[in-house]
């Protein structure tokens, strides 16, 4: 997702600074205390402009949410949304995550969301967020019972992701090829990309898998 420069970026960071984690690596093993309140700790990698994660935080005040977005011209939009909603259970990690263990200790996270988070390019298979080594990394940082949820409009990426799960010995508990026509539609929180693809008639693929 290429984005134009945000002219008032510095102003946004200043106004909404309480949501941006300044040194996310230093919070490794400390994320729970960073929120100042108990509750399951959920992570979205590739939050984009943040509609999904901010709406999830709003809908689940008893849980804590970490938005992760590496594009510095995109993540200010997440901060603005969090501020407008006066969220007290969302923080932003404004970096690209390559190895999640750089930021999170073993067993620290209770659930992971990947939403349209990875373009389909053949030569970059090992950088896809559902590549097998990434899945192994998610397993490491997740607590027993943690669930990974993945949505995409892309058929090839979805099939690839199912194969990668299988390669690391994981079997999804849910696989839907048309999320919006499924029983999960009611609780589904739309992302910006999801809306865009739905409008042009793409079917949204969805899977849920216990990581541990
Ligand atoms: C196609 S956009 C989707 C955004 C949003 N999830 C949605 O559905 O509207 C993918 C986003 O994931 C981010 N992203 C991809 N890999 C990432 C990583 N390893 N760490 C952090 N952000 C990442 C990109 O910068 C981009 O903004």
Keyword list:
binds S-adenosylmethionine; alpha/beta; Rossmann fold; seven-stranded mixed beta sheet; 212 residues
Domain tally: 1
Largest sheet: number of strands, sense, barrel closure? 7 strands, mixed
N-to-C terminal Cα separation, in Å?
31 Å
What would the CATH topology be? Rossmann fold
**Going by CATH, what is the homologous superfamily?**
Vaccinia Virus protein VP39
Number of strands: 7
Hetero compounds = S-adenosylmethionine
Summarize the structure.
With 212 residues, this protein is of the alpha/beta class. The chain has helices at 9-15, 31-35, 51-59, 75-84, 132-141, 155-167, 192-199, and strands spanning 41-45, 64-68, 90-93, 109-115, 142-152, 174-176, 205-210.
Give a written overview of the molecule.
By secondary structure, the chain is α/β, with parallel strands linked by helices. It has a single domain, classed as Vaccinia Virus protein VP39 (Rossmann fold, 3-Layer(aba) Sandwich). Strand 4, helix 5 and strand 5 form a beta-alpha-beta unit. The protein is globular. It starts with 8 loop residues before the first helix and ends with a strand. 38% of the residues are buried. Bound molecules: S-adenosylmethionine. The site of S-adenosylmethionine has 20 residues, from helix 7. The site of S-adenosylmethionine (SAM) has 20 residues, from helix 7.
